[in-house]
Amino acid sequence: MSSFPEKDKCPKVCTDIGAFKKAAKSPEQAKEEIKALEESKMKEPETADTRSHGPEESEPSSRPVTTEEYLPNLKPGPDGKVDWTPLGKMTGTRPAVNKYSISRYSLSEWRKHNENVLDPEIITESNIVEYNAKTSMMQAFGNIDKQQNENFKRLRQKAKDIFRWKVEVERACKAITEEVELLEIERQRLKGASRVLMLPESISKECLDLRSNRFQPDLVADLAEQELIKEMNLVSEVRSTLKNTLDQIEEQMAINKAAKHRIEYDWCDKTMAYNTESINLSLNTKSNTIMFKPGSTRFGEYTAPLEYWEYFCRETVQNCEAARQKSADLRGSLNAILVNGGRKLRNQADRTDIALAETVAITQELCTKLEQTLRDTLQRIADMESLIANLQDSIRKMDAAMKLAQTRLDNRNNWRPHGESVRDQPHLGLIEEVKKIHETVTSLLGQLKNAERVRQDLLEKRIILERDIASKRKTLNIDRDRCGMVRSHYPSASELAGY
Prior knowledge:
Shape: flat
Mean pLDDT: 78
Strand content: under 5%
Order of helices and strands: HHHHHHHHHH
């Protein structure tokens, strides 16, 4: 646990008493002075009135005794107004701004502001706070160091206990593992047949799952689908035939595996616990991996007492040893295993492969026709886009002619003087020209709209064709590539018979 360096520690003998120096005035004296100052300010207006009636009677000796500097009577300025009066602070009035001065405060206000700024009270308080804070921090670090040393010893003792039980559990885990291997050797043929039988079932199921991923148009119950379903039913029949023979040995194997799983799980927990305690022992306040963990002081959901932990460790080892002994007694009773149905499975697999090959050939032919149709559609889309571009260019060229005719008409309407503004043949011809241009543009726009509609229809047809081609290609990929690769691992008749 880190603590303050030597230079930050408080000296044994404190020679600096600045932090404990008594203030020059007590709070009561300061309040009395403030009250007297306010009373003197309230008397200033009365004194000013007396001096205005009898200037010859006011003498310097009659000035009020206050902490502020005495201000003599101010005479009116050129504008007839007094620049400053003692009532300024009470009424909020301030001197008028003129071309000579922009003053807003009196000299007494300025000096009082400076006294407030230079008040040493906050400095004294900061010295006291600093001393108290350093003392509290030194005590806190000392207590934390002591607590950490005690917890380090407890963690080290707990790590030793976990390691002792970890060795016992590891020994029991090795014993049950060896027993499982010996039992596996004794029933090699029976277990081999059962294990090989899982492969045809998984292959058939995976093929059905893969074919279920086809797109919507290709989700049909074809011949290949029917043969795969027959294959799944045949595997189920063969498995039910072997089940009666495997019941007894599978029950014992399940017991062995459950015991092995429990002991391995316990060994894994103890290994993780031991590693956790080792990490905790290696941590200190200068480690890079420590951080705040909100809620870490709460007990976990599955926290148990220490007595239950020791009972659980002992019970797990005893149960594992009992299962191992029972399995050793059963190993001598396993004699023979019989597997039948391998040839049926192999024949059904051949029929399924033929059905898949026929489906792949039909799908390939259809995909070729769709691709040719798509190429023709793309060519028509390109032609329509070229036509649309030509129509748009023609319409843009008509804009210049329309601008010219309308500009001429506007000039003739606005710039011919009174009697010259007549409906002559040039004017009527320009009007006819505007009409013809408008009709032509309307016709071209109709053609453009039709072309765009046809192009949109072609684009939609293209999307449909591309979707169908993608569907067919995915079907080919599933039936020919993925299902073919999966079914290439189908076991032979001898393997299905358990040899």
